[in-house]
Amino acid sequence: MLNFCTRMVKDRDAAADVVQESYARLLAIQQSSASIAEPRALLYQTARRIMVDLYRSDRVREHADIDALTEAEQPELPAHQQPDAMVASMRAIEAYAAAIETLPPRCREAFILHTFDGLPYAQIAEHMGTSVSMVEKHIARGRLACRDCERQLLGHPGPQDGRTG
């Protein structure tokens, strides 16, 4: 019986506990004056059920151990998923969107077509009915607006402050 349980649980001490508990349960049934037709079969079946219960309780204990980790032990979120970083990112996006929104309409259109849609200057010029040179100027103006926005986000003085940086 001990060898059978040891093969199943792969731990001799745990197997000895299973065997002892199995015999205790079998004796309790016999003492209740119930007749047992196949005591050996009942003993092995009882041992199997105890081993299943042990396995289940070990699995529950593993989950409880994971849940019991303190915040300090739990893995930290990546930097870009930290609440402060997410708020800062949203503010930066809003600031860039506002800076782009302040551009004159044709300048904004050329900048968006190039930066977000990835169109080349010649295609933008054809689409807008203007020269490639004018498209280059519009895009340069949009980049300057974004660069000024970035300086402000980083707390550096920019051309809009009247100071040099």
Question: What features would you describe in this structure?
Answer:
This protein is an all-alpha fold. The protein folds into two domains: 66 residues, no CATH class; 83 residues, Arc Repressor Mutant, subunit A. Helices cover 71% and strands 0% of the residues. The chain is built from seven helices and no strands.
Q: At the first level of CATH, what is the class of the largest domain?
A: Mainly Alpha
Q: Largest beta sheet, briefly? A: none
Write down the overall geometry. rod-shaped
Radius of gyration: 37 Å
Q: What do the pLDDT scores average to?
A: 83
SS content category: mainly alpha
Proportion of beta-strand residues: under 5%
Q: How many distinct domains?
A: 2
CATH fold-type name of the largest domain: Arc Repressor Mutant, subunit A
Count of helix runs: 7
What is this entry, summarized?
Helices cover 71% and strands 0% of the residues. The N and C termini lie far apart (84 Å).
